[in-house]
Structure formats: C-alpha cells, structure tokens
Amino acid sequence: MGFIPIARRRIMTNKFSGQVAIVTGAGQGIGFEIARQLAVQGAAVLINDIDETLLNKAAGQIATAAGGECFALAGDAADINFIQQMVDTAVQQFGKVTIAIANAGITLFGDFLSYPVDSLQNVMNLNLQGSFFLAQRVARQIIQQKSGGSILFMSSVTGHQAHQDLAAYGMTKAALEMLAKSLVIELSPYKITVNTVAPGATLTERTLEDTEYKNTWSRITPMGRPATVEDVAAAVLFLVSPDAGHITGQNLIIDGGWTAVSPSPY
Fold this sequence. Notes:
The protein is an alpha/beta fold. It has helices at residues 6-13, 29-40, 52-66, 80-94, 117-145, 167-187, 213-220, 229-239, 258-261, and strands at residues 20-23, 44-49, 70-74, 99-102, 149-154, 192-199, 202-203, 227-228, 251-254. The chain has a single domain, classed as Rossmann fold (3-Layer(aba) Sandwich). Helix 4 (80-94) runs parallel beside helix 5 and helix 5 (117-145) runs parallel beside helix 6 (167-187). 45% of the residues are buried.
C-alpha cells in the first residue's frame, strides 16, 4: 500500500477515539471483526457472546491489536436483564456508551409447514427482542449523557429475497429494517442515528464448515465471491462513524450484487 504519512495515519487510526461501543455476538465472525476494527480505530469496546471461552479469546485478540480498550461480558443477548447489565457495565468500565451494534442473531432453518414453535420463539427472542431492547437501553443511556450516538442492527439479504427454509429468519431481518426506520422518529431529536446493514453470503467460521459454501456462492454472486467479514465490518463502521452523521433510517446491502439477480444456491 505504500508509506502513510504520520498525520494521515493518526486520523485513520483514531476515527473512533472517545467512543464506547457495545457489540453483541462478537466471539467470532462478523461481530468479532466489527469490534476489532472499532478498537483499532480508537473506540473502547464491550464485546458480548454467549460462549464465554470463545469471547475471552476474542477479547485477548482485540486487546492485543488495539492496545487494551476491550471488556468481555458473556451472556444471553436476548435476556432483557442482561442487556441492561451490558449497558451498566460499559458505563462502569468506560464512562459512557455511544455506539451499539446489535449483531447477535440465530439462524434456524426449517420448512414452514412443520416449523416448530420453540424454533420460532428462539429466533424471535434473539433476533428481535434482543435487538429491540439493546437499542432501547442504549438509547436511554445516550439521552441521559446528552452525547448523541449511533445504533446499528444486523439485517440480511433474506429480509429482501426469499430463501428456502428461512421464513422465520427472513421475517425477523425484514422487521429490523422497519424498526430502524421507526426509530428515526423517536431518536433523531436526541442526535441518535439508527441504520441497518444486510449482508449476503459471508465467509465466517460457521459458513466455512460447509465445504461447498465458498464455491457455490462464488458461482452465483455477480462479483465472483462471497463477502468477507472485513467487507461487512467496513460498511458497519461507516454507518456508525462521524462520516455518516446525517444518515439514519437506511439499510445498506453487502452482497456482491446477489440481490440484483437472486439466483438460488439450491
């Protein structure tokens, strides 16, 4: 890439200096990369995952990359009491909260005609209830601080295009985009932006367990490859950065053009 002058390098590194972010579902994959990039660019981050071992490993990696501004809090991001605990802990550790990334989510495949009640409840609880109340509790804190801030929900291309066996999951992702639009009315007076990103096929530890995943999505994605976690994180960081301070209620699709043509992977 070549030599970056010191002044320019400092600007790039410290874009989020003074910001405090909560990122759920950050033990690996997209959530981890979002938290890592926020920390590298100057933010203090509280990361969450239900898998404590995975989370502590992630926190160590982020602290090493960013110089230590990372706190790990394991727990269920769908639980309302735990959500409040995340906010309180971030304030105790870092003095405030200014950014929330509601990344935690669950994908449970199933045929609509036989989809079980418990699967629907699990998908709704984490994807919707967890995201809704994280936004609510963080917004309350930001309003109390009078600082302004940013909230971002993790949607999906399945909220735009039908996928086989993903009726429940796609429904929750479409709902998150409507939630972001609705919160423009409620939160703009407090200088809080609310947006969503909708990743398509993305290479993560989970998706790479399927040995055909990369080849299948490379074949049907116009740009010739699935997204990387870096692709998605870059879009997220833009929307919660000062550069996007006048952008709210919007959704950004990161799918290499797949939704423009929508060939089925099946």
